[in-house]
Amino acid sequence: MQNKPYSQIKAMLAVTKASLKAIFRSPSAVLFSIGFPLVFILVFGFLGNNRGTSVQIAFTPTSDTSNVLFQSLQKISSLKIVQKDTNLIREDLEKGRITALIHIQENSSNNSTYQINIISSEAVQPQNLAILRSLLEAVIAGVNQKQFPNNATIARINQQVEKIPGRIYRTIDFILPGQLGFSLLSAGVFGVAFLFFNLRQQLVLKRFYATPIRRGYIVVGEGLGRMLFQLMTAVIIVGIGHFAFNFTLVHGLRTFLDILLLSSFSLLLFMGFGFIVSSLAKTESTIPPFANMITLPQFLLAGTFFSIDAFPKWLQPFCNVLPLTHFNNAMRSIAFEGASITDVGFELGILAIWTVVVYAIAIKTFKWE
After folding, report:
1. 55-164 sits in which CATH class?
2. Can you count the helices (H) and strands (E) in the chain?
3. Angstrom distances, CA of residue 38 to CA of 55, 263, 299, 305
4. At residue 343, what are phi and psi to the nearest 5 degrees?
5. How far from chain centre, in Å, is Cα 149?
6. How far from chain centre, in Å, is Cα 89?
7. Which pTM was predicted?
8. What DSSP designation does 312 have?
9. Is 64's pLDDT higher than 90?
């Protein structure tokens, strides 16, 4: 019987089939190829569906709020009206959290019924003031057209904006805390996960048993080494940000030390995630999928790259649960607003709860062999 000639095409298709099966059997390949792009599409899709720029304003206690102009301003979705104590509003204005304080008063002149005065601060971005002025002018024009067609205008905006002193909020003041949190979380999860997985796989941990050192001290020693390295990284990141890009450290050295203390506490929590991942992973290739399930949602949803306010209302409660969110909030409060480590007690409390939960799971799942 004559043998059939060897088919290169069939062999190639067999290799293709085997390769395809191998790819689908690799969780990391599927996650990086399909999962990550879908997550990014969803996140940036939410951002893209946002209704637009939201400008926060407040009204002075003596503003006339009984007029149609005030009622029309309340209906504008792009204007978020803040209602707080007068001192708190002024503090937010000084820090650039509120774009302007609006005062509406009756105008004694004949060409308009009301006058709008704008009070802002040096910390507010000029483009936000320009947006606010455009919105106010649009509201006035709308009211004029519908209800006061015979008047010259129902209101006029005072062209002189009163400005109070305030610290300029630069882009670096938002970005750097997020990037520091990004670095600490990545190192805590990926670094610890790969480290202890390899120590276990290479039987290094088992060899430690032949020495007098106790198991707990092995973990603490490895953890301290990684923590010291990451704190050096934090020093470099904050130092470059401050001296090269004017990152704000309100109280200088004291603020810097508070940042290091916050970073140490947060890194301890993030390392707990790494211990869990190192125990759950069966092979080295399964570490990235497990680690990214923990890190990716926090990178995207915890205010690392953009404000949580940009997301839909239904998603924001989930964002506010994430531990990295509270690190970022505390970091920005300490660095820019001058809060001390004791002033961010709420954020530290949330991080402490996460730490207890994470290490309770880590102790249950951690494997020595």
Report:
1. alpha beta
2. 15, 6
3. 30, 31, 15, 18
4. -75, -15
5. 47
6. 23
7. 0.72
8. -
9. no
Give me the sign of the Cα torsion angle 305, 307, 313, 319.
positive
Angle between helices 287-301 and 192-201 (to 10 degrees): 170
Residues 6+ apart with CB under 8 A from 226: 187, 188, 191, 192, 195, 271
Looking at residue 318, what is its pLDDT? Answer: 92
What does the pLDDT read at residue 88?
84
Task: Give the separation between CA 369 and CA 358, rounded to whole angstroms.
Answer: 21
Q: Note whether 342 and 255 are within 8 A (CB).
A: no
Q: Within the chain, which residue ranges are assigned CATH 3.40.1710.10? A: 55-164
Average pLDDT in the 96-123 region? Answer: 81
Q: Reduce the DSSP state of residue 15 to 3 states and report it.
A: helix
Whether the CB-CB separation of 234 and 184 falls below 8 Å is answered with yes
Rg (CA), the chain: 28
**Region 180-199: what's the mean pLDDT?**
84
Q: How far apart are CA 75 and CA 223, in angstroms?
A: 54
